[in-house]
Amino acid sequence: MKLFAHHEKLSNIVLFKKPAFDGNELRREYQDLLHKHGATRIEPLPLVNGVVCNFSLGIQLRALGEEEEVAVLEENLQVKLYPFEVQSKNIFLEQESYQIIPWGIHRIGADQLWSQATGEGMKVAVLDTGIDLHHPDLQKNIAGGVNFVEPHLPPQDDNGHGSHVSGTIAAVKNNYGVVGAAPGAKLYAVKVLNHKGEGYFADVIRALAWCLEQGIQVVNLSFGSNTPSHALHEAIRQVTGKGMIVVAAAGNDGTTRSVDYPAAYPEVVAVGAVDEKNRLASFSSQGPEINLVAPGTRILSTGNGGLFWRLSGTSMATAHVSGTVALIWSMAPQLNSDQILRTLYSSAERLPDLTREQQGAGMVRADHASQKLSRGKGEELETPVMETTGADQAHEPSHRFPLLHFGPLFPGPVREQ
């Protein structure tokens, strides 16, 4: 399937009231309806019972919006990476050094669980700028991917943000570089953002449909918009209704009542950031939608070109939570997504100097969640989790790419101070 050419004007998403698809094919009557109103470049979005298409005139849009069959007509808006603070880039770790456990990984207690579990059997999709497919600290765990920005190319990271997030989630425990929260989890590189960190709602919807087809259990979203999207919300309802956990950055606005979308949707785990002293990071968005906080300042992780970067942002905090979800779920694969979330929320560490709108349930703690599971309470936790509704699964073609492998380089992890 060809993807929509984003440079054209008046790109819109149309959702229909009644089922508009036979399988993945848009029914003829809906094609005719769209053509009648001048729609071009019609691309199906079966996950949300809609399409994305172009219009050359605003009058065409208004006329289509008045049709009885149309439920939602909205602009295919842009999503962007949250601005992040760069402490240092292109860090080269000498081979005679030891593997580093970054401070955030230790703070959430993930390293205490690796003798029991490492996230094995879990599939985590990083919807971002791609992943450095040849990074020696990531490559072994990259199991697949797809590029929705340039579909003819592999999902290679041309920005660095996606690689950094991926390392915090699942950098390999290989006696080299850094190690992620769930070093045994499988990563899926889903490129929805270009080299500038910009993308579109429609491609995120396509990406979520692809994740559903691949059996992805955890999705990491470190981008957003201050404008809601009915279509994106519907896509998230569909995939969470199928048991997927979606974790998203709250945003880096640094103000109250400023959680961006999609983190603000109730089906999403919205993550804020704290620093090494348990203080709310100055940039972290706040609001009643916040579910958890995690380390988000001076985070050392993988970057592009096989190197390492130190960054700050709620994106970095989100990756800690996604990794923790994978790690804990691998310890109790019989539990469903709601039970895993209840476990994480009820075992979070409340930080005394932060309000509910700043921290939600508190600091995510992998070690505390593991203890709760070991006590057999994973299924009877008090924190309520949102109700979701299921829907027919959409299918997109699978994209694969060849992988290379690197062996261990040197022994011995040490904890970063």
From TrEMBL:
GO terms for biological process: proteolysis. Transmembrane segments: none annotated. Keywords: Hydrolase, Metal-binding, Protease, Serine protease. Residues 119-362 form the Peptidase S8/S53 domain. Gene3D superfamilies: Peptidase S8/S53 domain. GO terms for molecular function: metal ion binding; serine-type endopeptidase activity. InterPro entries: Peptidase_S8/S53_dom, Peptidase_S8/S53_dom_sf, Peptidase_S8_Asp-AS, Peptidase_S8_His-AS, Peptidase_S8_subtilisin-like, Peptidase_S8_subtilisin-rel, Subtilisin_Carlsberg-like. It comes from the Bacteria. The active site is at D128 (charge relay system), H161 (charge relay system), S315 (charge relay system). Residues 356-381 are annotated as: Disordered. Residues 365-380 have a biased composition (Basic and acidic residues). The keyword Hydrolase applies. Belongs to the peptidase S8 family. This is Serine protease, subtilisin family. It comes from Desulfofundulus thermosubterraneus DSM 16057.
